[in-house]
Amino acid sequence: MLAGLSDGGMTPAENWFAARDAVRAGDRFGAFVHVPEFPPADYAEMGPLNAERPLAGLPVAVKDLFDTADMPTAYGSASYAGHRPVRDAAIVAELRALGAFVLGKTATTEFATWPPTTSVNPHDPTHTPGGSSAGSAIAVAAGLAPVALGTQTLGSVIRPASYCGVVGFKPSFGRLSRAGIKPLADSLDTVGLFARSVTDVELVYRALVPGPDRAYPLTGRLGFLRGPYWGEADTDAQVAMESGVARLRAAGLVVEDVHWPELAEASKLCRRVHDYELGRNLFADWRDWGHLIHPSLREGIAHARTLPPEQHAEAMLGLEDLRRRFRALFLSYDAIICLAATGQAPRGLESTGNSIMNAGWTALHVPCLTLPTLAGRDGLPIGMQLVAHRYEEHRLFAVGALIERCLAGIGNS
Amino acid sequence: MLAGLSDGGMTPAENWFAARDAVRAGDRFGAFVHVPEFPPADYAEMGPLNAERPLAGLPVAVKDLFDTADMPTAYGSASYAGHRPVRDAAIVAELRALGAFVLGKTATTEFATWPPTTSVNPHDPTHTPGGSSAGSAIAVAAGLAPVALGTQTLGSVIRPASYCGVVGFKPSFGRLSRAGIKPLADSLDTVGLFARSVTDVELVYRALVPGPDRAYPLTGRLGFLRGPYWGEADTDAQVAMESGVARLRAAGLVVEDVHWPELAEASKLCRRVHDYELGRNLFADWRDWGHLIHPSLREGIAHARTLPPEQHAEAMLGLEDLRRRFRALFLSYDAIICLAATGQAPRGLESTGNSIMNAGWTALHVPCLTLPTLAGRDGLPIGMQLVAHRYEEHRLFAVGALIERCLAGIGNS
C-alpha cells in the first residue's frame, strides 16, 4: 500500500473520480496539461482495489513526453498540439497492466529541453519548479498524485524533485523502457519516478522491475562527495548539506569525505553528447515544424547541427572509460551522497535551473535518488542526492530508507 | 554521383516518375510494401538534380520500420495497418534535406523480429531474402533503388545484404539517429544502409555524418577471424571464404589468421539483451493488440516477460567489458574479415536465417560492412564481412574499396 493512498472502502469508480476531482480542484501550479474527462476504456477491468495487481487503483501522473493512446501527447511543443499517439508508451502500458491508471499528463519543457513550462513551484510560485519534468514533480509535491513518471537526460528528474521537495529517482540507464517516449539524446535519456517517500518509489519500481527479494546488509558507511562543482552551489545549499551530513553522523552513520575529480569530465562529456544527439534526434521537428518551436530551442538545434561527429564519438568512448573507472571506486560505501542541485529553486520562471549536479551521474548511467531533507535560505527544499553503482537500485532504496529514518529521528529528538 | 545513377538530363519530375515506374514494373520479389502515387509535397523545392545538395534526386528505399509522415508505416505488423505517423524519422528528414526522396517503404519482418516477410530472394525466389530488412536488401539487389535504409538489432542489415548479394553497412551504434524508428532492443538497434558498392554507401554516409576528409593510409594487413561459429557455417561457405582469403593474398594483401574466442560471449550476451528488451519495448503492442501479432512473436514476447532483470544487467556490464577489450585488439590490422552469414540464403521462406555471424559485432557496437564477393553451392551470393573499431567507419570504407578493387582485379585476370 502506497503511503498516503488508502482505498477507504472506495470502488474503483469512486477512486478514479476522487483522484480526478482532486486534480481539478487543486492544480493551482500548472502541474497538468491534460486531465481526462472520463475513466479509461478498460476501466471495467480495473477490478477491486488492492487485489492481485500490485498497483491496483494507483493514480500515476505521466509527463507529457510519454505516449498515451487515450490522451493527447504534445511533448511540451506547440508543434504537436492535439497529437494523439496510436499506442501507449511501454511503461504506461506496464503501469496500466499492474492496475494503475493515468491520472493525467503533466507539463514538460519543450521536447524535455530548456524553454520553461508555465508551471510554478508549489512552495513559492515566484520560483521555478525546475525542468524538464516540472509537472510531475509538482503533481507529487502538491499532493495531487502519489507517483509520477518523468525522464532525465541531464538533470530532469533529480533537479525538479529537489526544487519541489519530493523524492526523485533515476534508475540505471536502460532499466525502464523508453519505447514510446520522444527521444532527445538517446545515449542519456532515462525514465524516472517521483513519489513522496522512498518506500513508495521502491514499491512502484519493484512492480515494474521485479527482482529477487534480497536483503541488503548495509555497512552504515557513506561517501560524501562535495564534487567538482561544489563551488557553483549556493552558500546556503553548502551549509544545508554540511549540516545534513552532521545530522547523519549524529545518527550513528559513518560519513567520509570522498573525491572524484573525473566527475567533471563525465559532466563535460555528457553535455557534448547531449548537444550533438539533440541536433540529430529533433531534426524532423526542426526542419518541418521549426516555426512552431521555441526560438531558443530552434537556435539550439541549428547550433547542434554544426557540432562535429568526431567530438561525439570521442565523448562516447570517454564516457565508457569513466563508467568503468567509477565501477571500481567507492565499493566500501553503501552510497555516495551529494547535493541534488546547486541550491533551492531559483527565483523567477525564465530558467529551469542548473543541472550541473546531475549531468555527470546521468552520463555514468548510475542510479540516483534524491531525498527532500534539506532547506535553503528561504525555506525552500533542497535534495540530498544518493548515488549507487549501476543496477544497485535495491541497495539505493535501502540506504535511502535508512537516511529517511535517521533524519526523521534526529528531527524529532 | 552514385554509381549507376545518372541524371541523364532528366528534370526532377522525370527522375521521380522514372524511379517510381521502375519499381512498379520491376518489383517481382516483394521488396516494397508501399510506393507513393504522387511526388512528395515539397517536390517543387527539390531543385535541379546534382545541384548544391549532395544527394539531390537520389531515390532511397526505406524499411517500413522508419516513420514517414507522407506514407503509411506499419512496422511490418498487422496491428499497425494503415498507421500514418505525424513526423518523419529523423534520418528520413535528413535524407530529404540532402535532396534525396523516399522511393517507397520496404518489407520488414514484424517489428524487425523473426516472423518472415512474404518477400523472396531475387536470386532464387525459393530462398529467403533474410530479415529483418528484407525489402531494403531486395530493392537494391533488384536494381530498383540505388540505396536503402535498414536497421540491425542482431544481424538484420548484414545478413540480408549477404543473402541478396549487395553491400550492407552497419555503422557504429548510435552513429545514425534512431528517432522515429520503432524500438526493438534499444541497446542494440542500429540504423544501416544498403547499396551496390562501397563508394555509394560511403557517399550517403558521409552526407549524413560529415567528417573531415581524412586520408586513411592502409597497411594492407587484414586479420581473418574464422571465429567461434565457424563450425556452424555451411561447408560451401567455409570453402568460399577460404578461397576469398586466398584471392586477397594473391592480390598482395597480408591476411593473417586471428582468434578471439570472446566473440562467442558477446554473441551470447547480445541474445540475452535482445530477448529481455524486446519483452519490455513491445509490451504495449503485445498487451493491447496482441491478437493481431504473429503467434510466434506473441509467444516470444510473453516468454521475454519472464526473463529476470538481473541477467539483463549482467549482460549489459559484460558487454561493456567486452567492448573495451576489443578496442585494445587487432590494432595492427586495417580490418577484421569474416563470414557475413553462415552460408548462402537458406532454401525456404519459413525462416529468415541465422544471425550468429552478426550478433556479437552488433553488441560490440562496431561498424560492419559486407561485400558481395563470395558464392555458395547454388551460385547464390555470400558476403565477406569487414569489421573495424568503433567510429572507424571511414577506415572501413577505405578497406572495403581496396578489397573490391583487389577481388575485381583477380576476377578479371
UniProtKB/TrEMBL annotation, chains A, B:
<dbReference type="GO" id="GO:0004040">
    <property type="term" value="F:amidase activity"/>
</dbReference>
<dbReference type="Pfam" id="PF01425">
    <property type="entry name" value="Amidase"/>
</dbReference>
<dbReference type="InterPro" id="IPR036928">
    <property type="entry name" value="AS_sf"/>
</dbReference>
<dbReference type="InterPro" id="IPR000120">
    <property type="entry name" value="Amidase"/>
</dbReference>
<dbReference type="InterPro" id="IPR023631">
    <property type="entry name" value="Amidase_dom"/>
</dbReference>
<feature type="domain" description="Amidase">
    <location>
        <begin position="51"/>
        <end position="396"/>
    </location>
</feature>
<keyword id="KW-0378">Hydrolase</keyword>
<feature type="region of interest" description="Disordered">
    <location>
        <begin position="113"/>
        <end position="133"/>
    </location>
</feature>
<comment type="similarity">
    <text>Belongs to the amidase family.</text>
</comment>
<protein>
    <submittedName>
        <fullName>Amidase AmiD</fullName>
        <ecNumber>3.5.1.4</ecNumber>
    </submittedName>
</protein>
